[in-house]
Amino acid sequence: MASKEELRKRKTYLQIAGFECSNCHKTTREDGTRSLLRCTRCRMSYYCSKSCQKADFSFHKQFCTAIEELSNEDEVWYSCNGKESEWNKRKIYHMQLLAAALDRDLTSYESNAWLNQPKCHVCFRTSRDLESRSALIPCPNCHVVFCCSNEHWEQHQSKHKSLCQTYQIMVQCEKIRYQGTSETLWAPEEWDESYIYPPLPKDWNSYLKWRKAPQFNQLDAICRVITNTLSVPLTILSALERFYSRNQLRSFDDLVVHLIGAGKYEVLALMSFEEIMHILPNIKTLQLILIGIELPSKTIGVSLQCCPRCTKANRKRIYSLHSTSYDEYSVSDDFITPQIVVGFNIDLNEETWNSSIEFLIEKELPCIFTSYSKEEANQNVKMLKDLGAKIIVGAKENKWGSTMPLVEPQETDKFYYNNYYRTLLKGKA
């Protein structure tokens, strides 16, 4: 599982932009200084003090050295000619060179820093590309969008004006997520005593009221971060109510969930799965089986801590990790038949998924797949229909999708949201 240290050290957009200390997140305003100190070697990390720079050095030094080597090679800094496509190609090329210099893959922190480095949103030049090495000019409100000149800001201003508020929300959400606050933030311990479920309430505001949450406004950054994590169990619960009757759901002693194509998003959300147990209080054991090639090494039957009330009732929440494809897992001795199969934010339009989907269809296992966009969801539905799946819900907006905006690193000024669309299927058409 991802460590708290890894989360703490992830570079936020404000750190990448040079408005927050790379070690302690302190801003120039908070520090009472005009500007932060910049690392003289890589020129990409900023610090509020020498002590913060020293504290961050062991974490930063390898990447710093690789960037310095890259910066000394003028031929690799070819012009992007004002084209976003060339900017994206050059970023990927540089990341390959950095990985070669490090003799390993870039970490998520390193990839994030390089993919989202400041550049002019009109001509796609970085400070390194400018003849005078002059600083880029940031937006005074969001601080994470730049232009290289006042003329380019005049060109970009009308487009950015409509998006600046979303950038500010994204920055606010990052502050909550990566500055010592837990990823889930608020996980209700109230049980559904009235046995209202199913169905779930009509929207996030109704849900938070039902679950006796603090008085959050759905538009607040803290509430948006909560939805990003709780979107996982609620998307599953919304699918369960489509596949099973109320009596069936209330009769489950054990619930087995397969999370296929799983990665960091699912691992970070593991603690929030207890919400399924609170809404279905008859469940004695919740088994979460994560299958995906991006996962750490195989881990079987690890118990997660439950709330005091669930612990007193001898309820168990267990997870297993299988660092493999679903194809291989489905024919292994470890396979356990699930009540539901879930794939969060998965692109099924790769041939490697075909045999897995055919297995799920043949076994008539209830499945839900989510997507970032309508286009991706429609492509998934087409692929599923081509394989003969019976679509129960096809490429529909998921009311339990995250409301926390995330920036698409490969497309300028484009945002996406986890689990925004959903598709349900079971068996053959």
Structure at a glance:
The chain is built from 16 helices and 14 strands. It has 429 residues and is of the alpha/beta class. The strands form four sheets. Strands 7-8-6-5-9-10-14-11 form an eight-stranded mixed β-sheet. A two-stranded antiparallel sheet has the order 1-2. A two-stranded antiparallel sheet has the order 3-4.
Could you characterize what this model shows?
The protein has 429 residues and is an alpha/beta fold. The protein has two domains: 4-178, no CATH class; 204-428, Rossmann fold. Helices cover 40% and strands 15% of the residues. It contains 16 helices and 14 strands. The strands form four sheets. It has an eight-stranded mixed sheet. Helix 15 (354-362) links the parallel strand 9 (340-343) and strand 10. Helix 4 crosses helix 5 and helix 7 (150-178) crosses helix 9 (221-243). The longest helix is centred in the middle third of the chain and has 29 residues, at 150-178. The model has no long low-confidence stretch (mean pLDDT 90). This is MYND-type domain-containing protein. Keywords: Metal-binding, Zinc, Zinc-finger. Pfam families: MSS51_C, zf-MYND. It comes from Gigaspora rosea. Residues 21-64 form the MYND-type domain.
Layout of secondary structure:
Layout: H1 4-9, H2 13-17, H3 28-31, E1 37-38, E2 46-47, H4 50-71, H5 84-102, H6 108-115, E3 137-138, E4 146-147, H7 150-178, H8 204-210, H9 221-243, H10 246-251, E5 254-260, H11 264-268, H12 274-279, E6 285-291, E7 299-304, H13 308-312, E8 316-322, H14 326-330, E9 340-343, H15 354-362, E10 367-371, H16 374-386, E11 389-397, E12 406-407, E13 415-416, E14 421-428
Parallel strand pairs: 5-6, 5-9, 6-8, 9-10
Antiparallel strand pairs: 1-2, 3-4, 7-8, 10-14, 11-14, 12-13
Helix pairs in contact: 4-5, 7-9
